[in-house]
Design brief:
Layout (H helix, E strand, L loop, with lengths): L3 E3 L5 H8 L5 E7 L3 H12 L4 E4 L14 E3 H6 L7 E5 L1 E5 L5 E5 L5 E4 L1 H14 L3 E3 L3 E8 L2 E7 L4 E11 L6 H5 L8 E10 L8 E5 L10 E5 L4 E7 L6 H9 L12 E11 L12 E3 L15 H21 L10 H5 L3 H12 L3 H10 L3 H12 L18
Parallel strand pairs: 2-3, 2-12, 3-9, 6-14, 12-18
Antiparallel strand pairs: 1-12, 4-8, 5-8, 6-7, 10-11, 11-12, 13-16, 13-17, 14-15, 15-16
Helix pairs in contact: 2-4, 2-7
The chain binds flavin-adenine dinucleotide.
C-alpha cells in the first residue's frame, strides 16, 4: 500500500511536486521546527533515519517566541555557531519593585542572545544535509494507527494529505496537540511572556541583562531588558490571570527613563508566547511517539529558561528513538521518562511555588534587600547562571556522546 495519500482531488504527480516529498513512508515525523524539533531532526537524519519535519510556519524567521538568551552551559555543550549569537554578556542588574538595583558580574562569558531566525535556518540546513524532508506551511491535524503504521493527517492549506510513519514526535510547543492525541501528559501551568525587539538603542557600559522583580508588571516572574549592544529586548512575563501582558509591556517600556535611552529606538519585532513552568511532564513517551521541548514541559520552572532543556531533551530523544526503531525493543523508551527528570529538580519546583505565591510588594522589596548579603548574592547568581538549571539527562552523559 502506498504510504502517502492525497485527499485534494489534484493528480498525485502535481501534489507530489507541491509537497516535495521524496519517500512514501517515514521512520519518524516531527511536528514543529522550533529549537527542539530542529535539534531532534538533524540528529535522527545523521543517524540515517528517514525523517519528515513539519511546521505550520512558512518561514522559520517569523513568529519567533523566545528572547533567545543562551546560558554558558548550552554554549559549552552544543554546536551553536558564533554567527548566530550576539556579543557575550557577563553583567546582570537586579531591580527591586522600587527600582533599587543590585549589580552582579561574572568572570566568565555567561550569556549570549541568539539570533534565532538565523540559528533556526542554520539547523534546518543541517537537517536537509542529513537527508531530512522539510514540509513548511503545513499543519498537523490528527494521527491514527493503521496496522503497524501511524497515519498522520497534515493540512497544507490547499491540500490535505496523509503520510505514514513508524514514530511521531511532538515538538509543537507549550499547547501540544500531539500530547493530547497520543494520550500523553499536558502542560497545566504557564506564564505568558511578551517582548519588543529593538535596534538603535545606545549601550552605556557593557552588555547587560536587567531583571526587574515587580509583582504588578510581571506577577510571578520578571520584567527584563536584554541589551548586548546590537539588539535590545524589552519584555514582561507573568501569570496570565494576574495581569494584562501587552498593557504591562507598554507600561514597563515607558518606565525606563534613566535606565536605557529609547529615544531613537527602532522596533524590529514583537515576540510572545506561553512558557510552561510546571516542570517536565511525567508521561512523555509511548510506543507511538514522544514529546520534546515545551511540549514536554522541558523548561526550568524557576528561571523559565527553555532553550537549554530543549537541546538536552531533544538530544536524548533522538538517541532513544533511534535505538527503539533500530531494535524494536520498547525497553529503549524507559530512559525517556519525565519522572527521572522531575525528581532531580524538585527544589526548583518548590521555589517556583514560593515565587508565585509571594505577591506582596513590601515582602519582595525586603527579599531584594536581603540579596545584598554575600550568601544571598551567591544564591541569586547560582539561580540565574548555575549549571543546574535543567538536570543532565543521564549520569555520565555528555551531548557529544549522546548519539
Ligand atoms: C517571550 C519568551 C521569551 C523566552 N526567552 C527565553 C530565553 O531567553 N531563554 C530561554 O532559555 N528560554 C526562553 N523562553 C523559553 C524558550 O523560548 C522555549 O522553551 C523554547 O523556545 C521552546 O522551543 P520548542 O521548540 O519546544 O517550541 P517552539 O519554539 O514553540 O516551536 C514549536 C513549533 O511547532 C510549530 N507548531 C505548533 N503546532 C503545530 C501544528 N499543529 N502543526 C505544525 N506545526 C506546529 C510552531 O509553529 C513552532 O514553530 C522564552 C519564551 C517566551 C515565550
Amino acid at each position: 500500500m502506498a504510504a502517502v495519500f492525497f485527499d485534494c482531488g489534484l493528480c498525485a504527480a502535481k501534489s507530489f511536486e507541491t509537497l516535495r516529498l521524496t519517500v512514501e513512508d517515514y521512520d519518524t515525523i516531527i511536528i514543529g521546527a522550533g529549537l527542539a524539533g530542529l535539534q531532534c531532526a538533524r540528529l535522527l537524519g545523521r543517524r540515517g533515519l528517514r525523517v519528515l519535519l513539519v511546521d505550520r510556519k512558512s518561514s522559520l524567521q517569523t513568529s519567533i517566541h523566545t528572547t533567545g538568551i543562551f546560558v554558558r552551559r548550552t554554549l559549552e555543550d552544543f554546536d551553536i555557531p558564533a554567527d548566530c549569537l550576539g556579543p557575550v554578556v557577563r553583567n546582570v542588574t537586579l531591580y527591586s519593585p522600587s527600582r533599587r538595583s543590585l549589580d552582579l558580574t561574572s568572570e566568565q562569558d555567561e550569556f549570549r542572545i541568539g539570533r534565532m531566525g538565523r540559528l533556526y535556518e542554520h539547523y534546518l540546513h543541517d537537517c536537509l544535509r542529513a537527508g531530512v524532508e522539510w514540509l513548511p506551511g503545513t499543519r498537523y491535524v490528527e494521527q491514527y494507527r493503521l496496522k503497524n503504521r501511524l497515519v498522520v493527517r497534515l493540512d497544507g492549506g490547499q491540500t490535505s494529505h496523509r503520510v505514514t510513519a513508524r514514530y511521531l514526535v511532538g515538538a509543537d510547543g507549550a499547547s501540544s496537540r500531539i500530547a493530547r492525541d497520543l494520550g500523553l501528559d499536558l502542560n497545566q501551568e504557564w506564564i505568558v511572556g511578551v517582548e519588543y525587539v529593538l535596534t538603535n538603542v545606545p549601550l552605556n557600559g557593557l552588555p547587560r541583562l536587567h531583571c526587574f522583580l515587580d509583582p504588578k508588571l510581571a506577577p510571578g516572574y520578571l520584567a527584563w531588558i536584554a541589551h548586548d549592544g546590537e539588539e535590545t529586548h524589552i519584555g514582561v512575563g507573568g501569570y496570565a490571570a494576574m495581569f494584562d501582558p501587552l498593557q504591562a509591556l507598554d507600561q514597563f517600556r515607558s518606565s525606563l527613563d534613566g535606565i536605557i535611552d529609547l529615544s531613537e529606538a527602532k522596533e524590529v519585532e514583537r515576540r510572545g508566547g506561553r512558557i510552561p513552568v510546571g516542570g517536565v511532564l511525567r508521561k512523555i513517551a509511548t510506543t507511538d511517539g514522544l514529546l520534546i521541548g515545551d511540549a514536554a514541559g522541558a523548561v526550568s520552572p524557576l528561571t523559565a529558561g527553555g532553550l537549554d532543556p530543549c537541546m538536552r531533551l531533544s538530544t536524548l530523544a533522538a538517541r532513544v528513538i533511534a535505538e527503539y526503531l533500530e531494535t524494536g525493543d520498547a525497553d529503549a523508551l524507559r530512559a525517556y521518562s519525565g519522572e527521572l527528570f522531575r525528581s532531580r529538580f524538585a527544589s526548583r519546583l518548590w521555589m517556583r511555588r514560593l515565587v508565585s505565591s509571594v505577591r506582596n510588594q513590601a515582602l519582595i522589596e525586603l527579599a531584594c534587600a536581603g540579596l545584598r548579603l554575600p550568601i544571598a548574592n551567591w544564591f541569586a547568581w547560582h539561580v540565574f547562571v548555575g549549571r543546574g538549571s535543567f538536570p543532565d539527562v543521564e549520569p555520565h552523559w555528555t551531548p557529544q556522546t549522546a548519539i
